Amino acid sequence: MSKYHFNEIEAKWQKHWAKNHTFKAENLSEKPKYYVLDMFPYPSGAGLHVGHPLGYIASDVYARFKRHQGFNVLHPMGYDSFGLPAEQYAIQTGQHPAETTKVNIEGGVDKNGNEIEGYRKQLDRIGFSFDWSREVRTSNPEYYKWTQWIFLQLFESWYDKDSDKARSIEELRSIFSSEGNIHINAACDEGIAHFTASEWLEFSEIQKQEILLKYRLTYLAETEVNWCAQLGTVLANDEIVNGVSERGGYPVIRKKMKQWSMRITAYAQRLLDGLDKIDWPQPLKDSQTNWIGRSKGAIVEFKVLPPAPSKGRGDVNVSTDSKGRGAESAGYLTGNSAIIGTLLSRAKEMRKNPTKAESILWNELRTKKVGYKFRQQHPIDNYIVDFVCLSKRLIIEVDGEIHQYQLEKDGERELLLKEKKGFKILRFTNNEVINNLQKVVSKIESTLKVLPTGEDLGGDFLEHLEQVSIPPLGARGTIPVFTTRPDTIFGVSFMVLAPEHDLVSKITTSEQKEAVENYVEATAKRSERERMADVKTITGVFTGAYAEHPFTGDSLPVWIGDYVLAGYGTGAVMSVPCGDQRDYDFAKHFKIPIPNIFKDADISEEAYSDKENTTITNSDFLNDLSYSAATEKIIAAFEEKGVGEGKINYRLRDAVFSRQRYWGEPFPIYYKDGMPHAIPTECLPLRLPDVEKYLPTEEGEPPLGRAEKWHWDERTREVVSPPLEGSGEDIFPLELNTMPGWAGSSWYFFRYMESGKTESDSKRDEVFASKEALNYWKNVDLYIGGSEHATGHLLYSRFWVKFMHDRGFAPVEEPFKKLINQGMILGESAFVYRVTLASGNVKEDNSETIEILKKIPNFFISYNILREKGQVQNGLLSTISLRNKLLSIIREQSRDVSEDFLSQLVPFINDLHVDVSLVNIHNELDIEAFRNSREEYKEAIFISEKGIEINNNNEKYIVSREVEKMSKSKYNVVNPDDICEQYGADTLRLYEMFLGPLEQAKPWNTAGITGVHGFLKKLWKLYHSGPDESFYVTDSPPSEGQGEDLKTLHKTIKKTQEDIENFSFNTSVSSFMIAVNELTAQKCNSKDVLEPLAILISPYAPHIAEELWRKLGHSESISTAPFPKFEEKYLVESSKEYPISFNGKMRFTLELPLDLNKDEIETAVMAHEKTAQYLEGRTPKKVIIVPGKIVNIVG
RNA sequence: GCUCGAGUGGCGGAAUUGGUAGACGCGCUGGAUUCAAAAUCCAGUGUUUUAGGACGUGCGGGUUCGAUUCCCGCCUCGAGUACCA
């Protein structure tokens, strides 16, 4: 006697597989390779729900199938274990993220005493065929050593556009030394000045480093970043959803900060082209294509005209460099020119309102009392410092009452001032200044003595800026714009700059200055979300400046407006109101002329943006040309005139790579003379230091600023404490930022290729993966995961792999050959309907009424009563009878509530999520369990389907159901452990596959699981048809003569193989059910049928298959048994049940031999009595016969 | 707004190249077994009907002997994206 004891069987085989390393992949194998990978999971503390393993089950089925087909399969698993949740948890509890991460993976007890199962155990219970010997965790130093190594390779590389690949910085240095940068065609920062070889050789090392930084593939630069104050960090574009942070949903603002960036834009075209070579879902490719956003057009420069004499004092000549940056040559102009207007007004105000300590100290510092010139409230870069001595590069800050503008301190501030701009910072508290002024002054004086002296070119900052803001002459100033419609250039009637544009402060006339500055400031304050929320409001300000049309010579007013984005193209547009709706709306709003340059186009209501059926007119030499002809002609004209050229523009921006957080890879970078330097690769990993708190420092530095030892000693090559004053010329501060989550996940698939550390042949300590391993496994053959990674992980890893390929570290250019997005499994939330009786006189609510209300119990009303009678209107229970019913229940219970009060009560109804574990498959609520779930429900009264109070077991309370995302907060989470416990892992695996197509989102319904569970029981029975359900399989040939069971088997082989290859897992589960139903009916017990059947089912239900395999007499695991071979001969039929249709409607079927030809079929059909019946005497006009398929009679 | 995807019984979903719509499972109904329940087994189950049929794959057209499948227009839902010049 033997029942299907799935718990025993599953535990037994899971142990067996682990012990025998059944699924270990070999790096040296005769077999062809196949690499199946799941997207890297983040090990969260919440554990798995049934939605998580869906993709893993699918990939496991495929991996097991490939093993049966004779492939050497690599199917690894590991953890993307750096990340925000562990760090947020660390901030709350003080626990080291490494510890919580370990518990989340391996299990244990968390700080609140909660038992945590751990990811690994949960995964093991489902019977995956992972090769755990190759596991990786991104937060292990052994792993992130190589993440840092790859970062340094990017740092030591530049992108050569001519050979279209990344090359080493050493090669760039040697090109510079031999020919300067004139012939270099690189992906680099804009506006790098040209230099010759001899000039290069003359440069100081710092200057050289500064220039090289502009070419490196990862570089440090001032960029507009997405700053999230609540998370205390910057975010990448893909980490922002609808203008708020993806994690936590906090607001995000645009901000300029010095950050590490990755020059992914260098790869824009290759990332686009590569999409054609990979087998990915079209929507995913589309979203990458959109994200890269290639558009073809032209770049044109418009000259800025000198202001008209009447309009101002246009005689101050300030030189501008190619980026339009003026004034920066003066040593005291240390503020960031882009936001100087804002800084300026803040500085002014702060000078007017000094704190007590500030004014005391200023008295001691002003007019060179200490021997050096100090400045008060002075802008440096993006900040305003309290006092600064520029010649000594000494900043003095007084802490305490903080100016309100400085409340939003940020992590970069001190780092930037101290380590990148080379300032020394002295910090005093208000108390020290007020109570111990003498000590403070002498500290300042002694510090001044030791510091080297630089220059402070006189003049006052504020006064100077007054002058600078007078518009410079436009002789060298131009506004470059990008346009996809260069053919419409004669329709330009104005220009618009982004408010953040560098030129804004340069060209604004004094008349317009105030309006412009107000506008710029207002725009900067608006969050991205606000800007998105109202795209309809048209705003903008005229700068007072004019630009010259390159062909007509017309003066075009230059505006600023926030519909122009600083980050796209050049941050400026030539506005063609007749052809672009946004320009049209802007022109209409500000009453700017709208010239029409399209023949026969009506632009009275809206812009005419059609390209294809367009004829250009009013456009000089472009008249009567089509869009394409005009475009070609005008670009030639641009080039001839030297005002522009054809250009391809991408929406893709360089990816910000710094995070002001603790739990990430440290950058292997230290700062010397303000320039970043790489730590020698031999010294990696640079380990994450311990800190006593995971928050930013008081100065707003990232958490790493709290580490005691976080300086690099060049001489001893180790991490050391900061140098003492006057010593340690070899000791430099290390970078305080850490890398983002996508750093570790951009290359992990390569790490799996190398054998695990415990293997004798492992080279994991020497290389990120050995050449042999990389060349054998190449890339991932099948990658399964969610579509949420479309523009993050999947784009960044493609970028890194292309880079690694360029530099010869990887043999392939694309990481993932085939990719499948599994759909989400949704939860079926359950709702109960609670009626609360509240006093109708809400305003008179007082503690007395509240006391009385407390005596009134909660009512819960069964769903169908409400549904059927439509009793809910705006949250109010509308039926009086029901209300009276509730009141009478209260009276019956003789609660101490006056009749008068009762009559005032108004019932409110709301639906509440109820834990799905308290509801059975018939949607009946377990009332007792529900009462016990919360104190406030203890006395609740339930109204049944029949509308009466429930006080026995015959009455039912029915909940309503709704499909929602599965989440703890919705109480609809189904835990796979529970399913395994109750039905077994094989049932879980089958059911997840059976639910529906892998790619589709589908609701989980635990009730349906009995179907597949019943199937497994039937399967087991099929092999146990002996006396007392003993194992019974015979060697006798399959049901002699009939061959019905072989037909069933081969039909199933064919279907299963086709289905797996098409990733149509749900239909193959159906075909197993059909097979087992048929074989059971046939009373099949033949080994020739049942043995192959076990292999067919093994990828889906490996435990039961392994057990049956053992019972069939095999000592080896079923996992590598060859997949049964399909043989057509068993499916050959001799006759066909023909559907006979009349005018396309099937009326009856007729069994006929398959070897009949058309004429014979027609004769047979026409002779049939039913045919005559359906024809009702008519003569058929036509008889369509498709032999083997159908017969259709028309007439 | 734009891009992509999807609409089939009470539910999850099948249907290969245009050829018997609703496979398989859940649920439901009836029956067997049982003291009873669970489990198991058997039968039925798109709607409608005057029991012959009629109608049925989001809606309206079209192509075809024949359309869930192909074409045109529309509606609804979901996902991505967000002024990209």
Automatic annotation (TrEMBL):
GO terms for molecular function: aminoacyl-tRNA deacylase activity; ATP binding; leucine-tRNA ligase activity. GO terms for cellular component: cytosol. CDD domains: Anticodon_Ia_Leu_BEm (cd07958), Endonuclease_DUF559 (cd01038). A motif ('KMSKS' region) lies at residues 965-969. Residues 476-637 form the Leucyl-tRNA synthetase editing domain. InterPro entries: aa-tRNA-synth_I_CS, aa-tRNA-synth_Ia, DUF559, Endonuclease_DUF559_bact, Leu-tRNA-ligase, Leu_tRNA-synth_edit, M/V/L/I-tRNA-synth_anticd-bd, Restrct_endonuc-II-like. ATP binds at K968. Its EC number is 6.1.1.4. Gene3D superfamilies: HUPs, Isoleucyl-tRNA Synthetase, Domain 1, Valyl/Leucyl/Isoleucyl-tRNA synthetase, editing domain, VSR Endonuclease. Residues 12-156, 958-991 form the Aminoacyl-tRNA synthetase class Ia domain. It holds the Pfam family tRNA-synt_1. It catalyses: tRNA(Leu) + L-leucine + ATP = L-leucyl-tRNA(Leu) + AMP + diphosphate. Belongs to the class-I aminoacyl-tRNA synthetase family. This is Leucine--tRNA ligase.
